[in-house]
């Protein structure tokens, strides 16, 4: 089960982050080039964010059918849709070939990626968490989370490899397409693995009792709307800071020949890939630590570490040294890991079983919009208007403090029973000041 969730989410996020990395390195030139250097990059980053606006649609659909039909079938559908969209991007003609139709088709395919991503995460983490023993729920839930890091490693690594195989103009002519074509093979492997995954035992119990909610989304927003808001805000700090790399901003900023850093494309991509290994390690550590000290305490520690990473990142990047850039990314990933590994367990424990898929998916999708959707675009605009990356650090710090406040508003419900036998206990609000346990 752990292997299946890791492989599936790694493939999904490889596809998703590949687009984000390509947006500031490739798409700004080949699809939005006529807009000029700065505006084309901002628009390319905006297309990364546009996909987030469609994540709730994917979350609504996946949550509705995941709570009615099961987690497994939704995961297979999202995997195929994501892979097909990614592969088709590799076949797209550029602006020079078909004009305005090129960026329009690119955006349409990115929207399909957004819908798929919105449905993927909730199903993957619930399969992991609902299969886990209560005392290991944080650790097991961190497994699909490391799929994000692996997806970043793969996407940045394959792009970096292609800069070596097809250097210079060859990379822009055809080299960038190869990583998108690779998605066809990856999705075939992921589909084969996910077909063999067993359905969540919690959903099996609900189905056997015929207790599926006919309108899980309606029940979610009627009874748990405030919890959805707080759960969404819990994610915004991590997502905004994480999208400095997964959204392609650091890659663009550090390689911009007109900017203050001016590093080569290849070394920066390798540095991002290597830092994702650190993110993976600290994500697993955070999940394990949360099993010992609780989800809430792990989050509080994580937000402090993330603030340190945010204020260290740009001063180190601005030295112009690839090693200092790598160090800055490593420091950032410590906080990213400690605010991410425990998230699946935390989310699963605060929503009742009957609407859990809907609650987890919708909260994650809304948090993604409020956090990372337009973080690279905002960062680009802030630097353009203020002339300093300090403004970006302040922006990210404010978002992080919002997540810290959301954490303080929630009780820790580590090890609460997740099955339908305990629906009444699960329905008691985990929000401090509303209900009690």
From TrEMBL:
It is found in: Cell membrane. Pfam families: MFS_1, Sugar_tr. Residues 1-415 form the Major facilitator superfamily (MFS) profile domain. InterPro entries: MFS, MFS_dom, MFS_sugar_transport-like, MFS_trans_sf, Sugar_transporter_CS. GO terms for cellular component: plasma membrane. The chain crosses the membrane at residues 16-36, 42-61, 73-92, 104-129, 141-162, 174-193, 225-246, 266-286, 298-316, 322-341, 362-386, 392-410. GO terms for molecular function: transmembrane transporter activity. Keywords: Cell membrane, Membrane, Transmembrane, Transmembrane helix, Transport. This is MHS family MFS transporter.
